[in-house]
Amino acid sequence: MKQTKTVVSMSLLSLPQRGWMAVTVVVAVAIVVAVLLAFLAMADGFRNTVNNSGSEALGLVLRAGSQAELNSGLSGDQVRLLRDAPGIKHDDAGPVTSAELYVVVDGTKKSSGTSANISLRGMELDGLKLRPTVDIVEGRMFVPGKNELVVGAAVADKFTGFALGDLVRLGKAEWEVVGVFSANGGVYESEIWTDVRTVQTQFNRGNSFQVVRFELETPGDIKPIQEYVDENPQLNMDVFTEKRYFSDQSEGVFNLIFYIGWPLAIIMALGALSGALNTMYTSVSQRTREIATLRALGFGGSSAFWGTMAESMVLALIGGVTGIVVAYLFFDGMTGATLGGNFTQIVFAFKITADSMVSAMVIAVIIGVVGGFFPALRAARTPVVKAFSLEQ
Amino acid sequence: MNDFYLIRKNLTRNRLRMILNCFAIFIAFLLLGALGSIRNAFDAGVELSADDRLVVVNKISFTQTMPVAYVNKIRAIEGVQKVTWANWFGGYFQEPRNMVVMLIVDPESYLDVYPEMILPDSQREAWFKNRQGVIIGEALALTYGWSLGDRIPISSNIFSHKEGGSTWEMVVEGIFSASNGRADTNYMLMHHTYFFETQSYGGEWVGWLTLTTGDPEKNEVVSRAIDAEFANSSAETETTTEAAFNRAFIEQFGNISLIIQSVVMAAFFTILLIVGNSMVLSVRERAKEIAVLKTLGFPAPRVFRMVLFESLLLAVIGGVLGMLVAQFMVEGMSNSPQIARIFPNLAIDSGTWATALTYMVLLGLLTGVFPAYRALTLNTITALGKG
Amino acid sequence: MSDNLYELKDIHKLFVKGREPVEIFDGLNMTIKRGDFISIMGPSGSGKTTLLNMLGGVDKPTQGKILFDGQEIQSLGEGKLAKWRAAHIGFIFQFYNLMPMLTAAKNVELPLLLKKLSAKKRKENVEAALALVGLSERAKHRPSELSGGQQQRVAIARAIVSDPDVLLCDEPTGDLDRATATEILENLQQLNREFNKTIIMVTHDPVAASYASTSLHLDKGEFVERDVAA
Questions:
Q1: Domain total for chain A?
Q2: Choosing among A249, A274, A326, A342, which should be mutated to test the B contact, i.e. which has the most B CBs within 10 A?
Q3: What are C59-82's pLDDT values in tens digits?
Q4: What pTM value is reported for the model?
Q5: Shortest Cα distance, chain C CAs vs residue B272, angstroms
Q6: What is the pLDDT of residue A388?
Q7: Same domain, A76 and A224
Q8: Which end of chain B has the smaller Cβ count within 10 Å, N or C?
Q9: Superfamily of C36-57+77-224 according to CATH
Q10: Residue A190 belongs to domain spanning
Q11: Are B232 and A172 in contact (CB < 8 Å)?
Q12: What is the DSSP secondary-structure string of A205-254?
């Protein structure tokens, strides 16, 4: 044990002599870790944004089979019928519902100057109640019947011309931005809201809607509404809890990013591993005489083994930590945007979770262990006679 | 024996190191090839667009429709040669998960505006005659194993059939391919007449129009004329070139090119470090041999070239292997229906190969130039003096 | 063609060791005749190897002239010197300095890469050189498969394969046992006598020095008269 300690400290102390070789391993591992974390942060950030938006206490209906709001269509009659469904919570003014209509409009991204789709959502005033995470942080809520908009914080931030007080041209009309809302980082922050009747008129939608949102009497229980819909032939609708709806929506994108990120990181880790092996073999061959001399003095093979392993592990761990720090500084909180299930932009913040960090460290440790093991075996088998030979 | 023999012997003297370096380079080029093909797939739509084709969409957003009457109005505008239109059907096969890209089109004009779609004359005639007929792309036919004459039910997540439900029965009348192998054929086309007669609601709307001007120079004038025609109407239009439209659509997914490029660059930087370091080390270890060569009368530039060539050789071996495996993988992947659905035209084209070869040379030169320079300036006396 | 192969005129050589400049040669003059076999002995630091390096054109005097066959070589550029070495000089080192990844034959062939010779002609020359040192049957062996003496003979074959005028030997027997050293020295003597190669050999070994026709003793940058132990 004491032997091992001596050899370990010797090989670690000689690390600076192999400066560039050591730096190579550290940088290679750091890059692998940072790339993995970037992808995981993207996937987690996207899922976090979408899931943050969903609540078990709320429900919604879409036309059967439509899967996304964009494809859905509900008539005014259907909406009226649905409001009477059991299982929807009532307050003083009746059932807490918001029938909504959703159109896609073009906005200009500040970052690239290119145009991208934004959702313009027409809603009823109860819509605000049905989104407990939403807070008007600037200005006020729109007044029904007027061309007034409240915009999500992400829209105000990422697109030009959506600041409080700005006049915006959407469709044929001019609209005034009267408020900005935050939604705890959720998808709503990528939307613009106004009165549903105004949207129907301005975009020639007659008396049609796409989605009805409501508060559930019992959180998570959509069964009474589902039964009501099934019994009523006029209502060919799918019923979801909001949480379920959003997680269905995010699954595809999350999986895509997640399953691209991992194989990529593993392939790159293999490249870094070959670098680590190269460095460690070189380290062993440069120290052959030193190792052999120690063995001639009576040190065991295992101390040579652990000396090399320790060197490799230290380099990989430094690399792993560096990668995490760099990824954290660069990517955590960075915002991205992509097309969501409704063909509109979802702005999300990259999020580096503790789980991802653990995964990243596991990759670093694997590179360290495998990269050290084989060279360490060679070190342990160094013949004592090498101590006396001229050649290295 | 010649210089190349010496270079080869030098490269292979430390087999383990060579294999490890080769592998690192292999990985970098595997990534370059595989990711390059994905980027290619995304860019194909832009690169394959005809330069005299314009796309007209609703100004509000391309998801908004326009009245079918626009088709004739646009046809009448000066400079417009051929016009066709399409609408999004929102199709799926049996399960909503099995998304099928189906467009509602006007058959004759559509094939006229898109001459790159290759369809045998007999199938073309058959489709024109049968309203219930559809033509499907090769890739799509492969995915679902559909063949000529098959009756297939396609459902819509947007429209409903007037007889209830949202499923339409179709007959495969033709299978088309594309003149360019990179073009997407993972979609199908149905007759607008059949659709208009059988849908339950919604008037006659079109999703977008495509037209040709015959001359890219006229694009700007024509697109301005079209947008002016519909200004202040209930559905204003926005007319752009096909390439610009496709690019805008891709960019909405996020900057995929940038992400791919960053990953490839990160991989290359790592490999540059690993291999460069290894070459420096290898030259340092043979300082004495290089000194001997110089003493024997080998001119310094020749020694410089030999070291540079060695790292080039290493980069090319690893790189070509990586690209070949990437090619193999991408070909395998493009035959998998699941992947073909996301990336319809996955392939490593000559452009990616050219990039890869350039990178190989750059990598070889970058990793070799420093050690080669050391060999060039190596002090023979000191190097020989080393016991 | 003059009888004098080398003429060294007023050679000065300064080294900077640490901060102190050390003057190894301070006006050395020397003449070497064609066909000489000269041994140079002397304590370490006396300048033996530096002198040999200057004669071989791998080192240059700080001041003074080195004439080879009447031509000044100290003023030649790197590229010309390399060509000159390839044409006129064969080197033999203490530790042989063979390329470990090449066979004996390929090692010997190395200097021929600098000449425009057909592959066939090169092969003939290599075979002849190996035959001369008695190693024909080891042509396909790598240095690691040869004994020290055999390696040195391969090195000699490499030195003579391009038919140079001069062989410069730095402690050629320094790493060998007596019997093997004798073989090597006899080999050199034969090259000097039968093929008229001019040989300049730096050595510590008085026995080795005795094979030379002229023995010089270098001390502090000057030749001193001293009896050579026979």
A1: 2
A2: A274
A3: 889 999 999 988 999 888 888 888
A4: 0.78
A5: 26
A6: 64
A7: yes
A8: C
A9: P-loop containing nucleotide triphosphate hydrolases (3.40.50.300)
A10: 65-235
A11: yes
A12: -TTEESEEEEEBSSTT--HHHHHHHHH-TT--EEEEEHHHHHHHHHHHHH
For B289-308, write each residue's pLDDT tens digit: 888 888 888 888 999 999 99
Has residue A199 been placed in a domain?
yes
A231 Cβ neighbours under 8 A, 6+ residues apart: none
**pLDDT digit string (tens) for A110-137?**
887 877 888 899 999 888 888 888 899 9
Which of C82, C97, C106 is closest, CB to CB, to B299?
C82
User: Does pLDDT of A392 surpass 60?
Assistant: no
Regarding whether A18 and A96 lie in a shared domain, the answer is: no
- Residues B147-185 as b/e (b if ≥16 CB within 10 A, e otherwise) read eeeeebebbbbbbbbeeeebbbebbbbbbbbbeeebbbb
For chain A, count helices (H), then strands (E).
11, 16
Q: Do the chains contact at B384 and C93, CB–CB below 8 Å?
A: yes
Mean pLDDT in each 10-residue stretch from start to end of chain C (230 residues)? 82 82 87 92 85 89 91 88 90 88 92 88 92 90 91 92 91 88 91 92 90 88 61
Distance of CA A113 to the CA centre of its chain: 24
Query: Contact B297/C114, CB-based, under 8 Å?
Result: yes
Q: What is the pLDDT of residue A203?
A: 83
State whether B20 and A278 contact (CB < 8 Å). yes
Nearest to A212 by CA among A127, A86, A118, A125: A127
Is the same domain home to A316 and A343?
yes
Q: Are residues A191 and A221 in the same domain?
A: yes
A260 located within any domain: yes
Residue where one domain finishes, among candidates A178, A204, A235: A235
Average pLDDT score over residue span A216-245: 88
Asked if the Cβ–Cβ distance from C78 to B296 is below 8 Å, we say no
**Parallel/antiparallel/unpaired status of strands A335-339 and A97-108:** unpaired
Contacts of B383 in chain C (CB under 8 A): none
Instruction: Give the closest residue to B196 by CA, choosing from B156, B154, B162, B167.
Output: B162
User: Taking Cα atoms as reference points, which of C70, C131, A341, C38 lies closest to residue B63?
Assistant: A341
Least confident of A28-32, B254-258, C95-99, C104-108: B254-258
B15 touches chain C (CB under 8 A): no
Residues A80 and A141 in one domain: yes
Q: Which residues pair with A167 in a beta bridge?
A: A176
Q: Of A75, A190, A209, nearest to A134 (Cα)?
A: A190
Cα A79 vs. chain centroid, distance in angstroms? 35
Asked if B381 contacts C24 with a C-beta cutoff of 8 angstroms, the reply is no
Question: Would you say A295 and A305 are in contact if contact means Cβ atoms under 8 Å apart?
Answer: no
Can you tell me whether residue B87 is helix, strand or coil?
strand
SS3 C185: helix
* Helices and strands (DSSP H and E) totals, chain C: 7, 10
Specify whether A225 is located in the same domain as A289: no
Decide which of A195, A211, A235 is a domain's last residue: A235
Do residue A259 and residue A337 come from a single domain? yes
Instruction: Give the ipTM.
Output: 0.84
Minimal-distance CA residue of chain B relative to C122? B1
Same domain (yes/no): A36, A93: no
Q: What is the pLDDT of residues A272-288, one digit of tens each?
A: 899 888 888 888 888 88
Note whether residue A94 is domain-resident: yes
Is residue A10 situated within a structural domain? Answer: yes
Q: How confident is the model at residue B356 (pLDDT cuts 50, 70, 90)?
A: very high
Distance of CA A80 to the CA centre of its chain: 38
What mean pLDDT do residues B138-157 have?
Answer: 89
Residues A317 and A204: their CA atoms lie apart, in Å, by 62
DSSP per residue, B12-23:
HSSHHHHHHHHH
Q: What is the pLDDT of residue C228?
A: 44
Contacts of B295 in chain C (CB under 8 A): 56, 58, 85, 91
